[in-house]
Amino acid sequence: MGFPPEVIASMRNHPVVGDFYRERLDAADRGELPNYYRRRLLDYKTDYSDELPLEDVRPIIKRRDPQLTRKTQYKCQDHFLWAVCLTLRGALGDGVIEDEELRQDIEGFIGSNPHFEREDPLPQKQALMDRVNGMLNRTIAYLTPTEPITSPTNT
After folding, report:
1. Does residue 73 contact residue 96 with C-beta atoms inside 8 Å?
2. For residues 137 and 118, what is the distance between their CA atoms, to the nearest angstrom?
3. Could you read off the pLDDT of 119-154 as tens digits, one per residue?
4. Number of Cβ atoms within 10 Å of the Cβ of 132
5. Burial profile 2-20: b = 16 or more Cβ within 10 angstroms, e = fewer
6. Distance from the first to the final alpha carbon of the chain
7. What is the pLDDT of residues 90-121, one digit of tens each?
8. If you ran DSSP here, which 8-state letter would residue 49 be given?
9. By C-alpha distance, which of 132, 136, 141, 140 is closest to 52?
10. DSSP 3-state of 102
11. In this structure, is the dihedral angle defined by the CA atoms of residues 123, 105, 33 and 22, taken in order, positive or negative?
């Protein structure tokens, strides 16, 4: 990871460092970064809707749940694309993607600055959605072990 153990310990215990990053640090300590990134990308794939509303999704979210107790998440929201790109960049930086063709495809995807514009025609939005889902599917498949993962509870 590049940091001395005392720096990592300090980062892990610092109040500004969130659980998200602590989870990544713990996965690195256990040698489980591929599984960490696979789980993170699976969450992005399954927890966000592929729906492409014709209107801005922020008012839709508030109308469906005025108290915002449960927020529908859409893949067409910019924060989703930022999160996917940052996660993919992290996987590259941590060296968990060793396949050169996939590395280049991920770098090309990130470098294309993918984003949705409300004004874009539906076919253009759908093409980007297909591209995002394709990148998620390929990367998840690459990070999925071919043998079952064992844990202390099923060994």
Report:
1. no
2. 25
3. 889 999 999 999 999 999 999 999 998 766 555 554
4. 23
5. eeeeeeeeeeeeeeeeeee
6. 29
7. 999 999 999 999 999 999 999 999 998 888 89
8. B
9. 132
10. helix
11. negative
